[in-house]
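JOB MANIFEST
job_type = single_chain_structure
chain_count = 1
residues = 608
[input]
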Amino acid sequence: MSETHELADLLQGLKERSGRSYTALASRTGLSRSSVHRYCQGLTVPASFGTVERIARVCGAGPGELDRLYGAWARAEARAREAEAGAGADAEAGAAGEPDAEAGAAGEPDAEPDVVRPPAAQDATRAAVRTRAAVRRGRRAFPLPPHRWRTLLLAVVVAVSVVSVVTFDGRPDPGGKGGGGTASGGTVGEGKGSGSGTVDRSSGQRIDGPYWALAPKPLDREYFGITMNTDTGLMPDFDVGGVRLWESETRWAQVEPQRGKFDWKVLERSVRGAERKRLPILFTFGATPGWAAPGGPRTPYPDDSRATPPDNLADWDRFVEAVATRYRSRIGAYELWDSVGATTHYLGSMTTLAKMVRRAARIIKRADPDAKLACPSFGKLWEPEGRARLEKFVRTGAYGYCDAAALKLHPRRADGPPEDIIEVAEKVQDMFRENSLGHQVWNTGPGAEIDDGARLSRRRANDYAVRFYLVGLYLRKLNVERMYFYSWGSRAVPLVVQPVGGPPTEAGRRIGRLHGWLADRPISSCGKGSGVGLPDGVFECVFLRGKGREPDTAGPWMAIRWTQRGQAHGKLDKGAERLRRMDGGVKRVRAGERVEYGETPVLVEYRA
């Protein structure tokens, strides 16, 4: 396919000129390494030109090169449409009369998703929409169960791990001998998320290995985020890596109560409070003022805010520009709406939301080129209709303007175990892969639809608070890069970490302790059970103990371990020297010593 090769040759040429590796390009574009590799090798064509443009700009492409890339992408997309249309013709005939599951998702008209494209790209975008429809028809005729894709991917990861700097279980192996621990006794309850040892149900083959294993990479301190729930400007008294401003009385309707008249007092107080603590800020847009959408339904907040987009998007543009200009270099990231999917927070079309994303991205990047953008956070992801709504937004191409995908990843119930998140995250990532989307994921807390009236016992609160972040580590293979706990400052949530005016709870202190253990440490793998040489049901994430951008893979290492339910017993492997508990206790241990793992995580430190 010469058109595909033309696009690939241009991208590969830019990559080589930039001197960046596929891994470096993936890190800077928010795509997965495999996606960048496929595009540069001509194995697949990106679904939107925005993806091509992101790769090109990181490589330093100029305006003329972007024009050539656009032409090559449009030709490759058209050729792909022709090929898929031919391949899908028989499948379409066999599915005659079958309704299209995508049509009418979220109760909206099936508008063409070309609103975030340059005008010259509209014809190619329509072709892309028809191409994806043909692919869906072909998928119905030739299905591949999701668990087969996961099994295949895990097998590849394990094969790579054998020849990398980690052993089959993801632990550092400077001696080249491997190092799984021995397991004995104890059975624990299993969650629904994928384990480390995967079974191919058609053959019974068991594939042992970690859920993911990669070259060690330092864990960004901003991974440990928290949403603020106060307008006082006070910040947590325990260590966290960043704060999200949403339930902080900083909604659009409060900052701009009248058109063109701004009240910056509360937002300024919160920003200054974060600056004093040196905490990076994620500002969340949302809650349209009543004057900008007088006919829209009200939000649940006491201000005069509405759950619809503004009647005139010029009002949106002016507010975004005012915030981004005033807080240039002070606010490091922006989330472009909160909790889409909850009718109390957003009642509007995906087409309009995509327009708002495109316009906000251009304004913010012009005012503050270093700011990161997270596309609107989507909730109700446990429900098929919620994921269908998200997919409809994905197909608008709006993610081409964002650095990250904000999602509401939470347990099924407010008092459910954090490990529930694994299941819903995998459902969303299956959809992302089908749409060739490889963005970073920022989990910005529970969606507005979850019942926050549940209450947790002290023990469960202490355990769930830290396991919320540990589950995010387990999901790093699915591009989860930040976790924002909900919330700080409130007494009216199931899990309180610190009320305004009071000291941190034990749950809050343990979050701070976890941050001290893991922030900036290079993480190399996460896995579960027998796949990583542990008792069934025991989760594990492995880190190097040193800090720095160039980790010493032959140095000392550590593993944090926990269960979802119950206890399990195992023997420590070679080099074990210290066990740290979440209550701050420390115990000296040795290889072969029998230990108990449970719902409260423990950290085991190993010598080089």
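[summary]
The longest helix spans residues 63-94.
Residues 87-168, 174-195 have pLDDT under 50 and may be disordered.
exit_status = 0
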